[in-house]
Design a protein that fits this description.
alpha/beta, 12 helices, 4-stranded antiparallel beta sheet, 36% helix, 12 strands, 8-stranded mixed beta sheet, 19% strand
Length: 341
């Protein structure tokens, strides 16, 4: 046992030295802890655990409650403001940013039962999530604790980020997550993406084994595609744009280069065709940008940028609109003026 502990300590010290900062000197961002969590003993629950029974209910009531509420959501979001396809880290960040405006209705389509994409783990089944600065400001907004290094921060478990943003997002009244639902196709009218064609994910995966099961539709003023890098369901948005001739090619992402990749993902997050914005790793697929590997800051900031591009498309206040005086300065050759596409 002693030799095992010594080996572990040696490994950790070597890892810390590789980052030029001893683990004992890690700066931990402080968070507020409620009195209930810091108390010496938890308060008793508001019921008797020694003699417990549930209130009676009819089984049909349970069925009716689930069905009625879900069908009401389907009716409400059959025509909505923004549909976000893919609830990975970029899609969740986009929907979260959009939902801050209570007048914007946001539907999230996720083919998996469990939203979050690759953000439940940090990479190669490891738990820690690395976020390069200054994307840590997004973690601050969510109230997520992290260990701080010079140029990056580390969340102790990626699931802490994913579960926190989901709990904040799904509590908002203008958001509905449709998980276990796949986007099978796009609605295109007059050269503009106008919504998505949906089906249960299990149906989509079994079209070849069952008789024809037609899809449903969801119209939207803006579609944000955040399907991730190529795979069984990945990059489906841009691949569909190519097959219907709205874009020329999808070259696919290049080999890994974190420093180039993260900047490129944020920079090239944009409305690729009228009505459709691409965010996250799907940007790398359409532009041939490098892959980034297990670092998540670009996913968060790309999602935020996509949200503000969607707000701009809706004619609402946003952080990416070009002010008239900026355009004039650019046209006059003003030095240092940057105009967002």
């Amino acid at each position: 046992m002693a030799s095992t502990l010594a080996t572990t300590a040696s490994f950790l010290n070597a890892a810390a030295a590789a980052t030029h900062k001893p683990l004992s000197n890690v700066r931990r961002r402080p968070i507020q802890i409620s009195n209930s969590l810091s108390a010496a003993s938890p308060p008793p629950p508001p019921y008797d655990l020694k003699s417990f029974t549930f209130s009676p209910i009819k089984e049909s009531i349970v069925s009716r409650e689930m069905t009625r509420r879900y069908m009401t959501d389907m009716i409400t979001y059959a025509d909505t403001d923004v549909v976000v396809v893919g609830a990975g880290s970029a899609g969740l960040a986009c929907a979260y940013e959009l939902s801050k405006n209570p007048s914007v209705r946001v539907a999230i389509i996720e083919q998996s039962v469990s939203p979050g994409g690759g953000a439940w783990l940090g990479g190669q089944l490891f738990s820690a999530m690395v976020v390069r600065k200054p994307a840590h400001h997004f973690l601050n907004e969510l109230g997520i604790e992290y260990d701080e290094q010079d140029n990056y921060v580390v969340v102790k478990h990626a699931a802490l980020f994913t579960s926190t943003i989901m709990s904040r997002l799904l509590a908002r009244p203008n958001v509905k997550l449709f998980n276990a639902v796949a986007a099978e196709d796009l609605i295109v009218k007059g050269g503009r993406v106008a919504g998505v064609v949906t089906n249960w994910a299990l149906v989509s995966m079994n079209h070849d084994t069952q008789s024809c099961m037609d899809p449903n539709i969801m119209e939207a003023k803006v579609v944000v595609s955040s399907c991730g890098h190529d795979g069984p369901f990945g990059a489906t948005g841009v691949k569909r744009l190519k097959t219907i001739g709205m874009i020329a090619a999808v070259p696919g992402m290049k080999a890994l280069d974190m420093n180039q990749a993260e900047d490129a993902i944020v920079r090239m997050t944009r409305e690729v065709v009228p009505g459709m914005i691409v965010t996250g790793m799907e940007v790398a697929e359409i532009d041939g940008a490098p892959r980034m590997g297990p670092t998540f800051g670009a996913m968060m900031v790309s999602g935020q940028k996509a949200a503000h591009l969607a707000l701009r498309s809706l004619g609402l206040p946003n952080a990416v609109s070009v002010e008239p005086e900026m355009v004039l300065a650019a046209e006059d050759g003003g030095a240092g003026t940057v105009v967002d596409a």
